[in-house]
Design brief:
The chain is of the alpha/beta class. The chain has 3 helices and 8 strands.
Length: 149
């Protein structure tokens, strides 16, 4: 009789424990491991090619991109601003408050820029080369016959 009670008690405990675990798993469904990285990567890509103007300040400074990249300039202020390279290589023209514009950086190097309307606003874009442009093609040479042949 004591053995039957112990077996019955063990079975009840096992059912409660296993039953409780099943409910917790169904109640909290984990986020898809595939969707989170894709979303984070997309956000990072957007952030990496956007200059934001807010409170009369450019961000990020410096912005680092590859040559040939299109950069979106978002003006979150209520007043118009520009993003104009000191050397004149890029210029958004006036961007009204709440609007955006795009510019493309074509050459590797450092681009210092300012706002034509508010000259105290300054920023920098550092432009690198794409990986295939950094590595020149290896020169093909004829090594000649292998030794011993």
């Amino acid at each position: 009789m004591a053995r039957t009670r112990n077996t019955l008690a063990g079975a009840v405990v096992a059912i409660l424990v296993l039953g409780g675990c099943g409910e917790d798993e169904e109640a909290e469904e984990p986020a898809s491991p595939r969707s989170a990285p894709a979303t984070e990567a997309a956000a990072a890509a957007d952030d990496a090619t956007t200059v934001t103007i807010e409170d009369f300040t450019y961000a990020p400074v410096p912005l680092r991109v590859q040559a040939g990249t299109s950069i979106t300039v978002e003006n979150n202020d209520e007043t118009a601003h520009t993003l104009t390279a000191d050397d004149g290589s890029i210029d958004t023209g006036a961007i009204e408050g709440g609007a955006s514009a795009e510019v493309e950086v074509t050459d590797a190097g450092r681009i210092e820029y300012h706002c034509e309307i508010h000259p105290s606003m300054k920023g920098v874009i550092e432009t690198g080369r794409a990986a295939d442009a950094e590595q020149p093609e290896p020169e093909q040479t004829d090594p000649g016959p292998a030794p011993g042949y």
